[in-house]
Amino acid sequence: MTRQRIRPRHRAAFSLALTAGLLTPALAGGQTATAAATPRTVCASDRAGRAAKLSRDITAALRGRSATTAVSLRAPATHTRCALRADRPFDSASVVKVTVLATLLRDAEKHHRKLTPRESRLATAMITKSDNDATSALWRQLTAARVKAFLRAAGMTRTVPGSGGYWGLTQITANDEERLLELVTHHNPLLGDRSRAYVLKLMREVIPSQRWGTPAGAPRGTTIQVKNGWLSRATHGWRVHSVGAFTGRGHDYTLTVLTQDSARMQDGVGTIQAVARAVHKDLDPSAATAEPYVPTRTPREAMPAVP
Known about the structure:
globular, alpha+beta, two-stranded antiparallel ribbon, 8 strands
């Protein structure tokens, strides 16, 4: 499995951030962090000035927002990484569907077979339309045990599958989602190139009403691969998440933004898109002059079945 390494001069910054708790939840015991208590985003990069600018702009994008937000960003070409609460667990909602698809493809590879027509139909509906029935069918077929085995092999050590068939309550972290996106976007021994291409193809074909979140502000000409999810529960309000892989224009990177504690779904969407616009602008200087991607103004997402 290909992993991008933090160069020696950046390790101290990341170690200090971990020690200081800047890459973990701001408050212990599951308490909700307020906007005023939002920790500083920690970034590192080989590109002069980029880390400081990303950290400053992501922090500014979150200022005054009610959502508790986690961010993980990786741009391998310049060894750029950012993290904010990146190991804090969140209910997954529908972003777990990329994990389900990767598990299905890995299982098929292990048994030296192609997906059946039924599996292909379910996988397409699960990713491009976020179909919950299709996800439930594949989740039952794979079983939680196979999902756990994939998570172990992928190094997604903090992800915990939802129990009782409630895949939407899988516990995820921004860092683990970035590990998954790294597997999908880079050659590795766990997922074959055809499987990786299939995942990215379906993420490119997500229907227009669900193409919001991390793509916001991406310069035209960028290839956008995205999967979103949202879920409202009695505690922590709305969970609204977006994972994206962006390729082309000489700027390949992945971005995960997870949120909770929003009073409305649209608040979570707005938080994610504010972060995304800052990231796209800072990673691709031409984004300031290139026509930006404008996501749908009417986000739609199927609601996962949860208790």
